[in-house]
Amino acid sequence: MLVYSTALPFLKEGRIKALSVSDSARVPQLPDVRRIGEEDGMNGVSLPLWQALFAKAGTPGSVVLSVEKAMLDALAQPEVKSKLMEAGVTAAPMSGRDLPGFIKPQAALYREIVQSARITMD
């Protein structure tokens, strides 16, 4: 299993073949590759890989809002979107207000996976 941006050069060279994607939607760059939730026995499964920008607790709200605005403004620019897409990254920006609502179910999903598989640090 590879992150799409890591797999991209190998896919372009034909050295590997994409069998499935783990996101909740098909990857725009690979429209014919099914997502795991479309496979038999995997209905509804989605394991999106995501990144977020965090600030240390206690960071002044004005600083947080300034960085958030700069990030959202940059991600809204067509040339930035294009460069990210070329690199295999699909930007899905959200505000800091919305991020906890996204993270909470993600944490629960991975907690369930770790517990049910009895994964330990050993």
From TrEMBL:
Residues in coiled coil: none
Signal peptide: none
Family matches, as InterPro entries: BUG, Bug_dom1
Listed Pfam families: TctC (PF03401)
Domain of life: Bacteria
Family statement drawn from the similarity comment of this UniProt entry: Belongs to the UPF0065 (bug) family.
Protein name, UniProt field: Tripartite tricarboxylate transporter substrate-binding protein
Species annotation: Ideonella lacteola
Lineage of the organism: Bacteria, Pseudomonadati, Pseudomonadota, Betaproteobacteria, Burkholderiales
